[in-house]
Design a protein that fits this description.
There is one protein chain. Helices cover 25% and strands 0% of the residues. The chain is mainly α. The longest helix has 9 residues. The two termini are 25 Å apart. The relative contact order is 0.12.
Length: 55
């Protein structure tokens, strides 16, 4: 959300439309995990590709 653009309330009002599946960050296609590894490096201990520390 971006307070500068005053979209907090508008974005928050749409939270019921967001995919809240607990596995939303998991790879769903056979090669997706490989692509994510190439782009963002290894996932963290929870299996989430954060891209932290990569450049």
């Amino acid at each position: 959300m971006t307070p500068e653009a005053r979209t907090d309330a508008t974005e928050a009002s749409h939270m019921d439309r967001v995919d809240v599946n607990p596995g939303v960050d998991r790879a769903t296609e056979p090669d997706e995990e490989q692509v994510l590894r190439e782009l963002y490096g290894e996932p963290d201990q929870n299996g989430i590709f954060r891209g932290e520390g990569s450049a």
